[in-house]
């Protein structure tokens, strides 16, 4: 797109809300003009103008629209088209623990979407490798194919499709040393699916691990004499994921994390069931059931979610009481910063024209990805 486009409204810039106009051309924001306004005026003032926020960034996406990243055959495009219609303008396609050849097959299917964004879809920034380098005693909903990690193996996978984020359990033999090697090789590392202690978590952070995968879930919990991996995160982390569907984590626990972790950011951990009716769906090798707002294995274990990022924003603001500006950072800016992306997750001249337009009820009215206006008519 090369035509100049203008969007009027309450625009959230890095310095706060402006009442004004945002201009974008050729996929980039070229100008933002206006005067500063308070968030109270945005939400309760006399002018009923749309609210313009940075597009959402989701670093943990397994599926959507009935498709799963592990199945290949164009699944990534369908998933990216479902989530963009809920305001996600960029995402990491997330794999499951599986035999290595299945992971390779999924990555081969992800290579093209990572290179070229299809029209009408979110940008696939790369891959989040969630396993197989996790603790077999803390699989959660991951299939039982955990294995020992090596840097050479991860580099071979990365040669198929760009891996941006790796979840591993630091307490497993060799993994602590691997954290340092991965960071030196340019990979971001998260701690997750772990039976590690508080001390294991602190050691991994000291080696360069950047954050925690779906905080509170699939990790050792907080006890006052054994702080566990949750305690390491709350005491020391700058970044961590959290799933704010209000099912995976109690609102009170989210509030604890918000007070403790400066750049806590939201992910959906969404499955093929996102945007779909109740029923059975795939999650890697598992069959999962969507019902009563959740997704579970036959034994009742939570298995990802049906959350979308627009609902995550509404949960933060309308259920947890966060200001829109703070909530926006947690569904967009912090994730971009975590991956080292200074041209996404913010509305500023020179940044990608990735944005969402919402009404005062925080319902989506418009989504723009790299300057392309997305058709919301068929939103899931």
Automatic annotation (TrEMBL):
Enzyme Commission number, as recorded: 3.5.1.25
GO MF annotation list: N-acetylglucosamine-6-phosphate deacetylase activity
Alphabetic keyword roster: Carbohydrate metabolism, Hydrolase, Metal-binding
Pfam families linked: Amidohydro_1 (PF01979)
Highest rank taxon of the organism: Bacteria
Family: Belongs to the metallo-dependent hydrolases superfamily. NagA family.
Annotated PANTHER family: N-ACETYLGLUCOSAMINE-6-PHOSPHATE DEACETYLASE
Protein name according to UniProt: N-acetylglucosamine-6-phosphate deacetylase
């Amino acid at each position: 797109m090369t035509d100049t486009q203008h969007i009027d409204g309450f625009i959230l810039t890095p310095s706060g809300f402006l009442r004004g106009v945002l201009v974008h051309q050729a996929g980039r924001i070229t100008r933002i003009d206006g005067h500063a306004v308070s968030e109270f005026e945005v939400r309760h003032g006399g002018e009923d103008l749309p609210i313009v926020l940075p597009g959402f960034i989701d670093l943990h996406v397994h599926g959507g629209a009935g498709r799963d990243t592990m199945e290949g055959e164009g699944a990534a495009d369908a998933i990216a088209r479902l989530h963009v219609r809920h305001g996600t303008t960029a995402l990491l396609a997330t794999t499951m623990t599986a035999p290595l050849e299945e992971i390779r097959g999924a990555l081969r299917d992800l290579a093209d979407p990572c290179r070229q964004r299809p029209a009408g879809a979110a940008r696939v920034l790369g891959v989040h490798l969630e396993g197989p380098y996790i603790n077999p005693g803390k699989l959660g909903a991951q299939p039982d194919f955990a294995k020992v990690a090596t840097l050479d193996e991860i580099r071979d996978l990365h040669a198929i499709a760009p891996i941006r984020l790796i979840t591993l359990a630091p307490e497993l033999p060799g993994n602590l040393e691997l954290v340092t090697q991965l960071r030196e090789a340019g990979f971001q590392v998260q701690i997750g699916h772990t039976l590690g202690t508080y001390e294991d978590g602190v050691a991994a952070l000291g080696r360069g691990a950047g954050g925690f995968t779906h905080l509170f879930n699939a990790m050792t919990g907080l006890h006052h004499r054994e702080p566990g991996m949750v305690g390491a995160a709350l005491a020391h982390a700058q970044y961590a994921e959290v799933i704010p569907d209000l099912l995976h984590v109690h609102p009170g626990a989210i509030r604890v994390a918000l007070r403790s972790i400066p750049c806590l950011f939201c992910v959906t951990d969404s499955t093929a069931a996102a945007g779909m009716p109740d029923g059975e769906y795939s999650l890697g090798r598992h069959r999962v059931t969507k019902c009563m707002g959740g997704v579970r294995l036959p034994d009742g274990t939570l298995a990802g979610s049906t959350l979308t990022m627009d609902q995550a924003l509404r949960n933060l603001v309308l259920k947890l009481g966060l200001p829109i500006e703070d909530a926006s950072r947690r569904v967009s800016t912090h994730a971009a910063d975590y991956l080292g992306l200074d041209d996404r997750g913010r509305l500023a001249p020179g940044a990608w024209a990735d944005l969402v337009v919402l009404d005062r009820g925080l319902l989506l009215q418009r989504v723009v990805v790299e300057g392309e206006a997305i058709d919301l008519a068929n939103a899931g």
